[in-house]
Each structure stands twice: as C-alpha cells, then as structure tokens.
Amino acid sequence: ISASFNTPIAGVIFAMEVIVMGYNLKSLIPVILASVTGALLTRSVYGFEPAFVVPQLEMHSLLEFPFIIVEGLFMGGMAALFIWVCVNTAQKAPKSLWVRFLIIGLLNGLIAVLIPQVMGIGYDTVNATLIGSLPWIALFIFALSKLLLTSLNLGLGQPGGAIGPMLFIGACAGGVIGEIGNFFAPDVASDTGYYAMLGMAAMMSACLQAPLTGLMTLLELTNNPNIIMPGMLVVVIANLTASEIFKQKALFPRLLQMRGLSIDTSP
Questions:
Q1: 93, 155 Cβ separation under 8 angstroms
Q2: Residue 171: which of 143, 149, 190 has the closest Cα?
Q3: Roughly what angle, to the nearest 10 degrees, separates helices 123-130 and 163-184?
Q4: Any residues with CB less than 8 A from the CB of 110 and at least 6 apart, and which?
Q5: What separation in angstroms does the CA of 103 have from each of 107, 158, 216, 245, 259?
Q6: 147, 206 Cβ separation under 8 angstroms
Q7: Is the torsion defined by CA of 160, 124, 77, 72 positive or negative?
Q8: Do 83 and 251 contact (CB within 8 A), yes or no?
Q9: Exposure string over 16-30, b if 16+ CB within 10 A, otherwise e
Q10: pTM value?
Q11: How far is residue 81 CA from its own chain's centroid?
C-alpha cells in the first residue's frame, strides 16, 4: 500500500486495521519500518509524485452535507454489492481451475472490447474523474463495470489486486454524485473531483471495514487536512451502510472464512 500509492501512513494503518486487527508496540514498529522502506524505494525510483493527480479540493459550503450523506449511502451500497458478488461467485465457482480461468478469460476479453477504460490499473480514468472531465453516465458505467469485473475475478480465484479497483470504483461512483450535485445545485456543490476523492476513501473503507485506512489514504493523496471532516462523515456512513443495512462484513475475512481459515490473529 505504501509503495503502490505513495501513502506510507495509510500503509501502516491498513496493516494494523486489516491484517493484525489491533494495535500494539511489537506489531507497530516493524510495520512502520516496512512501510517506510517501501515508500523510500518507490520514491528513489519514481520520485515524490503522488499516485494520482489531485487538484486543490475544498468544500464550498456546509449546505453540501446532504450530498455527502447521500454519497456515503451510495458508496456503502456499492461496497456491499462488491462483497456480495465476490462471495457468492466464490461459493458457486466451478471446482475445475481450467473452467474458472476459461470463464475469467472470456469475461475479461468481452469487457475489454466493450469498455476498455476499466482494464488494467485505470489511473488515467481516475485522474480524468478527479479533474471532472467525464460525464456522469460514463462514470456510472465505469464504476459498475469495474465493480462486477473485479468481484467476479476475485470470486473465481484470479490472483489479482483489490485495493486499486476499490479506489477506481470509488472515484467513478463518487464522481457520479458530484456530477448530479453540480447539475441540481451548481452554486452549492463542490467540484466533481472533490466527491470522487471522498468516494475513493469511502469505497476502500467500506469494503475493508477499515475507516482509518480510508481516512489516511484520503489525507495523504490530497495533502489537504480540510477534507478530513467530510471524509470522516462519508466513511462512517459508507461503513455502517455496508455492514448494518446490507449485512456485508469485510471482504478479506469473508473470503478467508470460506476457505476454512481462521481470522483470529495473535500479536
């Protein structure tokens, strides 16, 4: 996390919140050293530029909070759908590895032909979302397509990443809320990129049930402490929507439990 997104603090919080599931000095110190090492190596090769080109983001008015609440509910629903599709696909996946990989190949190839923007890392699409250059219908299609593609791939056993796609989905889905807000209340709503950034934190947090990880990622990617207060609200609402309304728990423990592996960890 630290090396991939140039977010060393978020890398530490992710490890403690999602992997170790607790905080203590013996676990924290080696995790910090690992995160610093990853960030140093990445920056020595690629420089200090962040993973995404983030414009200067700020909230225009306190009247935006209804939009932020709606975004939290929407992102929580998207996260619940992501987890539900992934888990149900894993439960019903064919036992044959060859059949599963055949399905994965056909699925990815078809989506690549129809919607090439969702393939690969997708940083260019995320950057276009952050600067507000994509229409809402394109953002919605990208978010839903990436959600289904990634969750089906993970459920079928494809050993691919999940964090990057979560940020992609969150940016596009958050951008939808920003575009709608700017359409109905252009004098009140902030730029689309503002809601896209909040969406990235909310989606990541709700899928992992790791609110501090989402907030630290948001802070380090934007380098803007003013975004933390609305970020706290959208992250909490998204987490509670996914876990309490839709009854979907964190993605990684669910997948481990399905494989008969214990999620109990000892520091």
A1: yes
A2: 143
A3: 20
A4: none
A5: 6, 11, 37, 32, 21
A6: no
A7: positive
A8: yes
A9: bbbebeeeeeebbee
A10: 0.91
A11: 13
Give the C-alpha separation, 175 to 125, whole Å: 11
- Residue 162, both tokens: 């999940």
Tens-place pLDDT, residues 129-187: 988 889 999 999 999 999 999 999 999 988 778 898 999 999 999 999 999 999 999 88
Amino acid letter, residue 93: A
- Both tokens of 27, joined, read 């676990």
For residues 15 and 113, what is the distance between their CA atoms, to the nearest angstrom? 36
Q: What is the dihedral of CA 101, 143, 209, 243, to 10 degrees?
A: -100
Burial per residue of 65-81, b for 16 or more beta-carbon CB atoms within 10 angstroms, e otherwise: eebbebbbbbbbbbbbb
The CA–CA distances, whole Å, from 72 to 62, 108, 133, 235 equal 16, 29, 23, 7
Each residue of 206-253: pLDDT tens digit?
999 999 999 999 888 888 888 899 999 999 999 999 999 999 999 988
Provide the token pair at 257: 């439990």
Q: Which two tokens stand for residue 13?
A: 């919080």
